[in-house]
Amino acid sequence: MVEQERRWNLVWALAPYGLLAVATGVYLVSRPVAPVPLVVVAALAVWHWWFVMAHPEWWERRTGLMLLYFAGLLGATSLLLLHDGAFAIFVPACYGLAFLALPGWVAYAGVLAVSGLWLVPQGTDLGTTLLVNLGVTTPMAILIGWIIRVMEREVIRRREMNERLTVLSAENARLQVLEERARVAREMHDTVAQGLTGIVTQLEVAEELTSAGDPVRGRITTARRLARDSLVEVRRSIEALRPGPLRDARLGEAVERAVVAWREEHGVPVHCTVTGDARPLSAETEVAVLRATQEALANAGRHARAGRVDVTLSYMEDVVVLDVLDDGVGFDPSVRGFGLTAMEERVALLGGTVTVESAYGNGTAVNVTLDAR
Question: What residue intervals traverse the membrane (predicted)?
């Protein structure tokens, strides 16, 4: 889709050269050649190349530069029309360039300015020209330009939506994997690990009930050692099933690592505080809190333009609470992106809540509360 847009933009940018070449050819074969029009044609070609071909990132974005370009385009075209009416062949290209180069309503003002070019050639019938242009040509150019812009906006909207859906789909797939890993880890903990713990306990009791010289005692000791080794391996496997940042660290440490990584990436001061008595939580809860931290920080980095961010992880009696506050530009909290929506859905599945408070110019506060029992 993006490549197709680039090709169409290239066609729009190159089209004026075609019409300029045709107009110049008609001029060369139908009139005595004068040097001034040829110099203006060359200057116009270079002018268009520099502002449009060489700097496509300026289109509809650098309004000042594009107004300068369009003024030069109109001026050069007027000079050509003063020398010979054959250059009127190039005028339709100016309509397209108005929508290519100028943003918003300025493009429509550019179309009206282009209409004035039809009055430049000597001997023009003023009444007929005004009637044809104001009654037909200009409205048609405005209508076609408006339709093209509507189509472009729709294409961009669909592309952005597809990109967001792709990201969300990948996030959901990743979460499903994490949830399955957490389920397997929980099942291993509740069945295999607990069973091996019971076996070790029973073998220790049996070992104590046998005399030191009893040959059975050696067998029991060997069985106890094997069961304990197996229990260690099972616990190691359970830890390996946890998400990367939580694999070798507790939740508070994983949150602090995420904060440090974000600060190094964005260069924004960020303070992390862990309060209360830290304790192990369910794998799903720890994953949800960590992902919420990463998503809130990612939003602050992409949109907030914050000067400071504060992250607080609070262990309370029966809940764990995450607060992420920034002093950025804020936004309308009723308009949620895919990231916040996914965070809310993930937390809601665990019976938790997500609260977002924000206003333009007053920063953003994200609160995530989950059951810690």
Answer: 12-29, 36-52, 64-82, 94-118, 130-151
289-325: burial string, b at 16+ Cβ within 10 Å, e else: bbbbbbbbbebbbeebebeebbbbbebeeeebbbbbb
Q: With beta carbons less than 8 A apart as the criterion, state whether 72 and 47 touch.
A: yes
pLDDT tens digits, 160-192: 788 777 877 776 777 677 677 777 776 777 788
- Answer with the residue of higher pLDDT: 157 or 373: 157
Q: Cα(107)–Cα(144) distance, rounded to whole angstroms?
A: 12
User: What are the sequence ranges of the domains in the chain?
Assistant: 2-124, 175-245, 246-371
CATH number of 246-371: 3.30.565.10
pLDDT in tens, 340-350: 887 888 888 88
CA distance 69 to 73: 6
Contact (Cβ atoms closer than 8 angstroms) between residue 285 and residue 372 = yes
Label residue 121 by pLDDT band (50, 70, 90): low
